[in-house]
Sequence to fold (253 residues):
Amino acid sequence: MLKMNSDLALLAPAKPFSAHLPIQFEGVHLSFGKHLIFSNLNLEIGAQGITAIMGPNGAGKSLILRLLAGLLMPGQGSVRFNQSNRIPRDQIGFVFQRPVLLRRSVQDNLLHALAIAGVERGQRSLRAGALLDLGGMQHLAKSPARKLSGGEQQRLTLLRALAAKPGLLILDEPSASLDPQATALIENIVLRASQCGVKVIVVTHDQGQALRLADEVIFVHKGRVHASQATDEFLRTPASREAKAYLAGELLI
Ligand SMILES: Nc1ncnc2c1ncn2[C@@H]1O[C@H](COP(=O)(O)OP(=O)(O)O)[C@@H](O)[C@H]1O
Ligand SMILES: [Mg+2]
Fold:
């Protein structure tokens, strides 16, 4: 119970995110030069909890995340948060596939993120310490961030995103190429954030990870949504031929 209270103080969104749900893509069109990526992409993320986006390489998953976060604008169509065209960027935390860290200590990376998030100077140390505890990284506080292992860097990137108390946390293959233990540490933090009311959208190739984390799966293939189902249902009885082939390891782009 005590743990839950301290998690809430550390992770609960600065503003409730439910006011911005559902998220809807309507007729989204995106191309790079002659390369058409999305001709008419429609999807809906309605519920709180954790949504996984799955699909083969090149399906458009990372681009969907960029559109969601307003890092990229569709050529046509719209990305709407609760019917509004305004993307609540200040409430979105993004963890990219490759960690992007400052050439400073682990602790300084967090202090910097807290400063940017507008946390008062006097409170930053305490919050950084609590984040380090959450990530099991206290012993690495003074280490140069860029000298950490891959798993530690990814964990620090996640903690840094959480420093701003986002309402929506977006993760692009957060544990690709990590071992099971490093993966479990990341998943534990993501679950704790979710329990504190953070909406999570995670791209993953890992069916085990989808099952452990996600309430629902959106399956994307060649720039279109081919299934959108509760996770256990998706894994047991995928709603499309393409999704079935993907889960069986048979789908090539
Ligand atoms: N900046 C870009 N310029 C041109 N093509 C791009 C760009 N970004 C992504 N693409 C192409 O869009 C498609 C979808 O990319 P992406 O969303 O990264 O796929 P994934 O599902 O593997 O994350 C791929 O064919 C990729 O080559
Ligand atoms: Mg990708």
About this structure: The chain has one domain: 20-247.
